[in-house]
Amino acid sequence: MKRAAAAAPPPIRKQRSILFAKFPPGQVPEASAFLTTIDKLEVEPRDQPRTVGVAYDLHHHCLQEIDHALEERGYHLDNTLLSKMLRALVYYVEETQLHNLDAPRRPLKRSQSEAYTHAWERHPHGDHDDTPPEWREYK
Description:
- The chain is an alpha+beta fold.
- 44% of the residues lie in helices and 14% in strands.
- The protein has a three-stranded antiparallel β-sheet with strand order 1-3-2, with helices on one face.
- Strand 2 (41-45) and strand 3 (51-57) form a beta hairpin.
- The termini are far apart.
- The mean pLDDT is 86.
């Protein structure tokens, strides 16, 4: 049986809401129009005022990159404490997911047991017999 060549990783789809500041007014439609020009980024309407929904694959975009692009274009994101904390949490989670995707996979149990085995061999304990081998086999 032939194995298939390594396929592309499965998408990690994210759906986020971007909340804009109250001032200047009218920036939400302009920001939505700008976001539709970004490749592989879906813009979704939201019922809440001052909010734009975005959906993307984490392999292509992250919220921090999208927010930075908006701020560079002069749009003002909501800067309440709750919004800042939520954004920071999402940035951290997405960065961690991306980091974990690049991490090499290795069996955790095997490496743990090897570490304990090596530590046990080096640690003096009561199961060690100092009798020379020739005396242990004397009959």
